[in-house]
Amino acid sequence: MEFPILLIIIIALALIFDFINGFHDAANSIATIVSTKVLTPFQAVLWAALWNFAAFFIAAYVVGEFKIGNTIAKTVDENFITLEVIFAGLVAAIAWNLFTWWFGIPSSSSHTLIGGFIGAALMHALITDYHVITQTHPEYSFFETVTQSFKQLFSQNIVKYKVVIPIFLFIFLAPFIGMFVSIIITLIIVNICKRSNPHKAERAFKKLQLVSSALFSLGHGTNDAQKVMGIIGAAMIYFHVNMIHDPQYLSIPEAERFAYFAQHYLWVPFVSFLAIGLGTMSGGWKIIKTMGTRITKVTPLEGVSAETAGAVTLFITDHLGIPVSTTHTITGSIIGVGLTKRVSAVRWGVTVSLLWAWVLTIPISAIIAGITYLIVVLFF
């Protein structure tokens, strides 16, 4: 079976995004383990990359499904998905990811991908409505046509709010869950170990940090690689249903098509997890400094607490099928361990800057994707 050129480009771009996501989010998995000097940065990225890739086998053969990938593929109504929409969304996501990586801002790769997908779909619907109105009402002025196009746009169910609203809520809930869990874990550990020899305890926690960072990297791989898989899945399903009218896909209910795609093209999740692992190996040194030291100073005990709390949060959200930001999650967890010392231990100036980046990611990605889609339609 031959794939169209644009579909091949989308798959390539998605895997490039996945790779960028890996080095952009490398700090999430290794910031605390590097800042506590348990591993060198090079050793840490290799350790994180190994567990990022190992997450594929957990998702495919233990869990047996890819819930987060399915959620991503269904953020937009299938009627408003085209290859051009997916292409524009990916270009926007890559652009915002590289911009935030360059300036050392730990923004969410997850939310930039979702924002790009939604923004491109909205622009596609707007342009389609504009053309329909110009044909049905040629007497309208340009301003009237644009006004009617926007009215039509807002009356359509382009975005699946049932899917998207939980994602928006977890922009704020994920860091708070991570923070709450890390506070509880830290307090429990401190009370259990308060009579322990400090040097022996520190050595023990440095060893435990290898386990906690591995768990967080598993959660990171499971959560983030599936997002790219979801975008590729949306493109492949569009190809089978709308371009070649594959009877096998057409006979399957819309809600079950993604699961069939994941079995039909098992190489897609495999290379998605592999790409994020390779990206993690390349590291993200600018962001590591922000995550590991600028939010709060972290000891091995606190590193174990933060990473374990982050892992628990990611495993819960994966079970629920809600894509969350690993950046937000580990940031909340690190803030939690800082709060167990004192409120002033957290550098709130840095934290507020991160919060602004989180809030702006989806709308900015959506705007970039909309403009990109407009350029693609007008010039190609």
Automatic annotation (TrEMBL):
Domain of life: Bacteria
Compartments, as annotated in UniProt: Membrane
Keywords associated with the record: Membrane, Phosphate transport, Transmembrane, Transmembrane helix, Transport
Membrane topology note: Multi-pass membrane protein
Coiled coil ranges: none
Family statement drawn from the similarity comment of this UniProt entry: Belongs to the inorganic phosphate transporter (PiT) (TC 2.A.20) family.
Name under which the protein is recorded: Phosphate transporter
Gene source species: Epilithonimonas pallida
